[in-house]
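Exercise 7b. Backbone tokens:
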């Protein structure tokens, strides 16, 4: 499973990193016009996609200890589980950190 996480990381981050290296060596133009604008936008979206897919790729291999089950991680990330159980964010008392009472 670690190999799959590393492969996803490389697929998602390599295009923007290669584009940045080619831009710094003046192989690609620094300005975003023509084909460069959609290409760089797609590369940035790929790097954002890595952050979105990371909980699913790493969470599917980690055994659950009762905190978040594998099937409920999208709900946990969306915040619906946090509000019902008082996890993170604002609590019922209106404070941001329950531990600092």
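Sequence design result:
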């Amino acid at each position: 499973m670690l190999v799959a996480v590393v492969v996803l990381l490389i697929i998602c981050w390599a295009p923007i990193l290669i584009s940045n290296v080619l831009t710094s060596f003046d192989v690609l133009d620094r300005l975003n016009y023509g084909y460069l604008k959609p290409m760089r936008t797609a590369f940035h979206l790929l790097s954002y996609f890595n952050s979105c897919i990371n909980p699913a790729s790493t969470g599917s291999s980690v055994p659950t200890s009762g905190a978040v089950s594998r099937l409920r991680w999208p709900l946990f990330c969306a915040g619906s589980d946090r509000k019902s159980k008082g996890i993170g964010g604002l609590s019922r008392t209106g404070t941001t950190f329950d531990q600092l009472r």
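Instructor comment: The mean pLDDT is 76. Residues 56 and 73 are 8 Å apart (CA to CA).
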